[in-house]
Design brief:
Blueprint lengths: L15 E8 L4 E6 L7 H15 L6 E4 L2 E8 L2 E8 L4 H18 L6 H6 L1 H11 E2 L2 E2 L4 H19 L2 H17 L1
Antiparallel strand pairs: 1-2, 1-5, 3-4, 4-5, 6-7
Helix pairs in contact: 2-4, 2-5, 4-5
Family: Belongs to the adaptor complexes small subunit family.
Main location: cytoplasm
Organism: Thamnophis sirtalis
Length: 180
């Protein structure tokens, strides 16, 4: 979409069109689309294939394809992509990509590779949802994302313990301390 010079664009919070992660063969591992630019799964996969074919052998970090700005990063056998409109600030898109990669790197204990990513896919979706919600950037600081997700993990582990489990555990600890 070509924007005529002199045209002032209405500011919008909806800056991210898509985030997707592909393997080294260009196969989709995760994809979240935030608008109807590619309304069907077939169109999305075709777009992802085109993006992968254009980017998987290059060293640059930014691509322009089909009127969209795409920032990307590769790691071992994975390719991470953040897609915005053609007039979107590349630095802002890059900050989202960096936040995504750093958050996943921390969550996966620096093992950012396909097998580990697939084993932790539920956490990967949480990271993506914490960073972008409906195309709106919610967080671009990986430390904040990590902190929020650790808080959720801590909460869920406490919630899983019922009162009887806690009492049973306490009884066991008291019994063992008396027997020593």
């Amino acid at each position: 979409m070509e924007i005529p010079s002199g045209l002032i664009l209405e500011p919008s919070l909806y800056t991210i069109k898509a985030i997707f992660i592909l393997d080294s063969f260009g196969q989709r591992l995760l994809a979240k689309y935030y608008d109807n630019t590619f309304s069907s799964t077939k169109e999305q996969k075709s777009f992802e294939r085109n993006v992968f074919n254009k980017t998987h052998k290059t060293e640059s970090e930014i691509a322009f394809l089909e009127g969209l700005t795409i920032v990307y990063k590769s790691s071992i056998d994975l390719f991470f992509y953040v897609v915005g409109s053609s007039h979107e600030n590349e630095l802002m898109l890059m900050s989202v990509l960096s936040c995504l990669f750093e958050s996943l790197s921390h969550m996966l204990r620096k093992n950012v590779e396909k097998r580990i990513l697939i084993e932790n896919m539920d956490g990967v979706f949480l990271v993506v949802d914490e960073i972008v919600d409906g195309g709106v950037i919610m967080e671009s600081d990986s430390q904040q994302v990590i902190q929020k997700l650790n808080f959720r993990v801590d909460d869920s582990s406490l919630a899983e313990h019922s009162v009887t489990q806690v009492l049973q555990s306490a009884k066991e600890q008291i019994k063992w301390s008396l027997l020593k």
